[in-house]
Amino acid sequence: MANPPFPIPAPSPASAPASESASESASESARIKVCITLGTRPEAIKLAPVIRSFRQLPQVDTQVVLTGQHREMVAQVMSLFKLQADHNLDIMQPRQTLSDITCRSLKGLETLFTQIRPDIVIAQGDTTTAFAAALAAFYQKIPVGHVEAGLRTDDILNPFPEEANRRLVSQIATLHFAPTETSVNNLKASGVLRGIYQTGNTVIDALLTVADQSPDCEVPGLDWSQHRVILATVHRRENWGAPLADIAQGFLQILERFPDTALLLPLHRNPTVREPLKAALESHPRAFLVEPLDYAELVGAMKRCTLLLTDSGGLQEEAPGLGKPVLVLRETTERPEAIASGTAKLVGTEPATVVAAASELLSDPSAYSAMAKAINPFGDGRAAERIVNIVMTYFAGSSSRLQPHLQPHSHPG
Ligand code: UD1
Questions:
Q1: Spacing, Cα 101 to ligand 1 middle (Å)
Q2: Catalytic residue among 41, 104, 227, 235
Q3: Which of 43, 119, 148, 294 is catalytic?
Q4: Which of 76, 91, 92 has most ligand 1 atoms within 8 Å of CB, for mutation?
Q5: Distance between CA atoms of 267 and 219, rounded to whole angstroms?
Q6: What is the mean pLDDT of residues 72-77?
Q7: pLDDT digits over 43-59, tens only?
Q8: Which atom in ligand 1 lies closest to the alpha carbon of residue 161?
Q9: What domains lie within the chain, and their CATH numbers?
Q10: Per-residue pLDDT at 192
């Protein structure tokens, strides 16, 4: 087996004797510096449990870095989880291009990593921030821990550019925190030889934390008791343009066919997405187009809605945890577990297909309950704890250091 790509720092703080008489500055310098990078709302949601778990450890100096790829949408999540960032690169520009995000994040992170010298950089998922953070760390030979590793559609253009981002991060990362057995196998098929751990998805940790707080979602004019509410979200680049117009047509036809339904559509902040949706749907009396919900409201809406129509990845993972069927407005999904377990169906964007799938669920109680009762395959709410344990073991540098990959379902800790 090849040598580890990065040396394990020594001395190992996690295995040091507990009763040190060393000065405060020495123990300060012995702390493991974990730098957690994030740029968008889903990264904030999925990393919040990881940040909280690291921050409970006195032997870790946890530094949270926002690239600023998103501004308002990340700020909401940070405040919900009562988290503060240590650094903010504030890169967001209206109508930013992928190159803008990549260049500005890469350069900003290079400077920051040179200053703070992290022992490990944690990145999540498949956004441009995640890719830039992994690359910036790699250029400084800092090991990367990749949360939600191993998702694949095997179509490089779908989702775009996320499929490429996550494949690229897999080639650079040292520790791969794979949510499911499928993602473990995808990593192996991508040529990743070591450092793969099946942890579950941290989104379930976040969801359970928030769902416990009895979240609600008040929308002016929307009476939840009068309507069966369809909760919808759309933002993916591959749906911009004609697919977005098709999706809006599908929504209108569902509303017309089922007069007892209402559509709740939180709009993404991106004008390329929100403007055509507003133009097509805004005037319908049962279409409620609202600003992005904060995460607690979104969880409240998920709990109360009848079904979800979405192109979001995270909602495919969360809704089954709350017993809600999901129709996925995409041609592919990197979450085949949801399809296999029966909690989600891939319906694309063609109005006829979308309307047929929604109609079945809205008119056939047995079809509905088959989807609503399927088991959530994405985790048990302890993924962050496992991730933190794996990182600490990595730095302990003992014989219990990284094992190539744990047996499916045999989680550490
Ligand atoms: C990004 C991620 C996508 C993730 C999504 C979640 C990439 C390539 N894409 O897509 O994987 O699912 O975030 O939302 O990393 N905007 C604001 N305020 C905000 C956020 C966005 O005004 O708080 C607007 C800006 O005009 C910005 C635009 O939204 O230019 C698009 O944001 P961007 O990060 O480029 O792409 P997303 O579509 O959000």
A1: 10
A2: 235
A3: 148
A4: 92
A5: 13
A6: 94
A7: 999 999 999 999 999 99
A8: 8
A9: 31-201+379-396 (3.40.50.2000), 220-372 (3.40.50.2000)
A10: 97
Interacting residues of 293 by C-beta distance below 8 A, sequence separation 6+:
217, 266, 301
The pTM assigned to this predicted structure is 0.88
Amino acid at 183: S
pLDDT band at 27 (very low <50, low <70, confident <90, very high): low
In tens, the pLDDT along 104-128 reads 999 999 999 999 999 999 999 999 9
Q: Does 257 participate in catalysis according to the annotation?
A: no
The residue that leads in pLDDT, 154 or 5, is: 154
- Closest atom of ligand 1 relative to the 235 alpha carbon: 38
Q: What pLDDT shows up at residue 28?
A: 64
Question: Is residue 284 among the annotated active site residues?
Answer: no
For 217, other C-beta atoms within 10 Å of its C-beta total 23
Length in residues, the chain? 413
* 350 catalytically annotated: no
Atom 24 (ligand 1): residue with closest C-alpha? 270
The whole-number pLDDT of residue 279 equals 97
**Per-residue pLDDT reduced to its tens digit, 239-275:** 999 999 999 999 999 999 999 999 999 999 999 999 9
CA pair distance 62, 272, nearest whole angstrom: 36
Residues 62, 53: Cα–Cα separation, whole Å: 10
Is residue 79 a contact partner of residue 109, using CB atoms and an 8 Å limit?
no
Q: Which atom of ligand 1 is nearest to the CA of 129?
A: 15
Per-residue pLDDT averaged across 189-194, rounded? 96
Closest CA to 67 of 34, 110, 31, 14: 110
Task: Report d(CA 386, CA 330) in Å as an integer.
Answer: 31
Tell how far the Cα of 74 is from the centroid of ligand 1, in angstroms. Answer: 10
Distance 39 CA to ligand 1 centre (A): 9
> Which residue is closest in CA terms to ligand 1's atom 31?
270
Contact partners, residue 264, CB within 8 Å, separation at least 6: 217, 219, 222, 229, 230, 231, 232, 288, 290, 301, 305
Retrieve residue 131's tokens: 């890719």
317: annotated active-site residue: no
Predicted local confidence at residue 392, as pLDDT: 97
Q: How far is the CA of 201 from the centre of ligand 1 (A)?
A: 22
Please state, in angstroms and rounded to a whole number, the distance separating the CA atoms of residues 361 and 364. Answer: 6
Ligand 1 pocket: which residues have CB below 6 Å?
A: 40-42, 69-73, 94-96, 98, 101, 127-128, 161-162, 235, 269-270
